[in-house]
């Protein structure tokens, strides 16, 4: 996967060229996402960490508001 997508998808969309190091599920498995290739993207560690933190914050808010 990283060979197919050597640059972080989020960085590329922002006009940067950062090497990807993490395979990320676009829609988390816990949220019903698949483990198939169309649901995966290559990210750099900072983008992956930021995406994960954002997802965890959404989870926290959903639990609080439930």
Summarize this structure briefly.
The protein has helices at residues 9-13, 45-65; strands at 22-25, 40-43. It is an alpha+beta fold and 66 residues long. The longest helix is centred in the last third of the chain and has 21 residues, at 45-65.
Radius of gyration: 13 Å
Helix content: 25-40%
Q: Characterize the overall form.
A: flat
The number of distinct β-strands equals 2
Order of helices and strands: HEEH
Largest sheet: 2 strands, antiparallel
| N-C termini distance | 37 Å
Tally of separate domains: 1
Topology:
Blueprint: H1 9-13, E1 22-25, E2 40-43, H2 45-65
Antiparallel strand pairs: 1-2
Overview of this protein structure:
The chain is an alpha+beta fold and 66 residues long. The chain has one domain. The protein is 39% helix and 12% strand. It contains two helices and two strands. The chain has helices at residues 9-13, 45-65, and strands at 22-25, 40-43. A two-stranded antiparallel sheet has the order 1-2. The longest helix has 21 residues, at 45-65. The protein is flat and about 40 Å long. It starts with 8 loop residues before the first helix and ends with a helix.
